[in-house]
Structures are given as structure tokens and as C-alpha cells.
Design a protein that fits this description.
It is a single chain. The protein is α/β, with parallel strands linked by helices. The chain has two domains: 8-62, no CATH class; 80-152, Isochorismatase-like (Rossmann fold). Helices cover 29% and strands 18% of the residues. It contains four helices and four strands. It has helices at 72-79, 91-104, 122-133, 142-151, and strands at 8-12, 57-61, 83-89, 109-118. The strands form two sheets. It has a two-stranded parallel ribbon. Strands 3-4 form a two-stranded parallel sheet. α2 packs parallel to α3 (122-133). The radius of gyration is 16 Å and the shape is globular. Belongs to the isochorismatase family.
Amino acid sequence: MHFSTLWIQVVREHDPLGRDVEVFRRHLYSKGKVGPTSKGSAGAELVDGLVMKEGDYKVVKTRFSAFFATHLHSFLKTEGIQDLVVIGVQTPNCIRQTVFDAVALDYPSVSVILDATAAATPDIHQANVFDMKNIGVATPTLQEWSELCKQA
């Protein structure tokens, strides 16, 4: 079996005036403030240590889910990608919503790497992992996932 990966970097990026921000976040962009994820701001950049390489793909989103109002689903289908592995921060927000949308879109294999995702507290993280497991999402550790890849 041939196994290959495609790195897709999903970033939250907003209009500096906050015109595309959710209602509950608009106060962060009001009265001339540059919001925390305004295009060109540090909050809309990759974290230190992550770099885009040749062949990587970037998706810009304005909501929790990487699928909502983006072209991610179309891109994945065009590339023939069916198995998704999700990592990142804010398990109850971006990770959870992206994963629930992936399941709703009938991706046959969706995994969340437990120790490559995080929330404000371990309890919040575990509660959301529990919910994702209940809809059929695999939740291996990075070590467990790496071992699975070696076997594939």
C-alpha cells in the first residue's frame, strides 16, 4: 500500500476592519483596533517552527470549521483525499467543528491526534475528544499514528 501525506495549513484570517468576523468577536475589531487574526497580523501567521513547503496547501477560513465557506472540500475531492488527520489548537472550537463537518461530508477516515491538539484545559480537551470518538473519529497519539503509518 502506498502512503503519502499532503500538508494543508488552515489559518483563520479576517479583514482588518472585522467585516467578516462573527458577531461575538466584533468587539475585538472595533474602534480602529487591529483584531487578533487580521490579515497580515501575527495572529494570522504560522506559529514558530511551522513553515509552508513546496507542494503544501493553504486554506484561509473565517469561522471555526475549515470547511465552512472555503474550498477545502473541493480541493480534497480533486486530490482524491479521503483520509483526514487533524491537528491544531482549540479542540472545542476549530478542531471539533472541522471534524464534525468532515464526518457530515462522509470522509471515511477522520483522525484527531490527541497530543497534537489542545484546549484551554485538559478537561475541556477530553470532553471534546469523547464527543468526537462517539461519532467514529479515531484519536491516536502521535506515536500511535506514526506506527500505523509505518505499517501502511
